Amino acid sequence: MDARLRERYSRQILFGPIGEEGQERLRHSSATIIGCGALGSTLASLMVRAGIGRLRIVDRDFVEPSNLQRQTLFEEADAQELLPKAVAAERRLRCINSDVEVRGVVGDLTPANAEELLSDSAVLLDGTDNFEARFLINDYAVKKSVPWIYAAVVSSHGLTMPIHPGESACLACLAEDGDPAEEGSTRVNEPTCDTVGVLGTAAGVIASLEATFAIKILLGKSEPRDVRLIAFDVWTTRFQSLRVPRRQGCRACGQRQFSYLEGEAQPRLTMCGRDSVQIHERRRRLDLAALGRNLAATGNHVRQNDFLLRLEVPPYELTVFADGRAIIKGTRDPSVARSIYARYLGA
Question: What distances in angstroms separate CA 181 from CA 187, 268, 272, 346, one per listed residue?
Fold first, then answer.
């Protein structure tokens, strides 16, 4: 390691369990973060500052003013420009540490693209806002024997747990009970940041724990036999550490049935944090420039950039991405969302 890098990471190198050898190992390691909201943005900053070699960030969403209270990579200009979070994150992270290879991917993680988006990473990190995405990550990680870290935050509390496929409990051991096709419906009424809010400080604590777990995994210093589910409430300062055993007959790590990865489990459409529905089953490319011209010519109010197009059709707001995905704001009814999608983008 040259003198410049030794100086940059000097305080981390002085920490005994890492040292110069560990820092060098971090420089040649890689990770993927799925979701770049409150958890993912803080997590990405911590991993890049720690000196990881390669970081991929996958996110389907764009920056809004309501994000700025807790999503630490973004600023007002990003929201004004309607920048996708993955794009804004990549730009900011490259300025934080130009030695790290950062790639932001604007997209939705699905069974069809999981191999493309999750491969070639030594650890997978949870920054998502729904269990369907987490079960998909879990299926991929268990099938491919890739360690990953589960995390979630809502209101003032959050939790996280490292998962070592084949050696520790997986997410299905912890959270799944019964037919995975029914799992989404059992969680519809759980609290979300849209119903009970979320503190940025809670996301910061959980992201810090998640980043620490990731660094330990990348350095080969994580003990699968000592894996615990960590829960913390920043408002009440209550802390819990629970040992989670592998569940006999677990669908994923026991029976090796990967229903989410194979596309058998139907994901929910409603997104956390907004009164919105995402239409994501289409796989078609859109010419956003041509679409914008056509919509504007009929008197519609359109805003767009190189990554997305926004159409206001009160009381709804339609945000369209080049891959055909769309977020319809102003409804939680999938049938209404699909109707609006068909009306302006075609059936």
Answer: 12, 11, 20, 29
Tens-digit pLDDT profile for residues 266-300: 554 555 456 888 886 545 678 888 888 888 887 78
Which residue of the set 36, 170, 173, 193 is catalytic?
Answer: 193
Q: Is 95 a catalytic residue?
A: no
pTM comes to: 0.83
Q: Which residues pair with 276 in a beta bridge?
A: 329
> In degrees to the nearest 10, what's the CA dihedral of 123, 161, 265, 64?
-80
CA atoms of 121 and 16, how far apart (whole Å): 26
Instruction: Check: CB of residue 265 under 8 Å from CB of residue 187.
Output: no
- 220 — phi, psi (to 5°)? 70, 25
Strands 301-304 and 308-313 come out as antiparallel
The C-alpha angle with vertex 104 and arms to 80 and 252, in degrees rounded to 5, equals 120
229-249, pLDDT tens digit by residue? 999 999 999 999 999 999 999
Is omega for the bond preceding 224 within 30 degrees of 0, making it cis?
A: no
Kindly list the structural domains of the chain, giving each domain's residue range(s) and its CATH number in brackets, ordered by start. Answer: 3-243 (3.40.50.720), 276-345 (3.30.310.10)
Q: Supply the DSSP symbol for 154.
A: E
Q: Tell me the C-alpha to C-alpha distance, in Å, between residue 266 and each of 133, 180, 209, 332, 340.
A: 11, 9, 31, 17, 21
Amino acid present at 172: A
What CA–CA distance (Å, rounded) separates 70 from 87? 18
Instruction: Kindly state the tokens that stand for 203.
Output: 């996301």
Q: 315 preceded by cis ω (within 30°)?
A: yes
On whether the CB atoms of residues 229 and 242 are closer than 8 A, the answer is yes
Q: Which residues pair with 150 in a beta bridge?
A: 161
> Distances from the Cα of 167 to the Cαs of 125, 175, 323, in angstroms?
18, 17, 38
Identify any residues that bridge with 36 across adjacent strands, giving them in sequence order: none
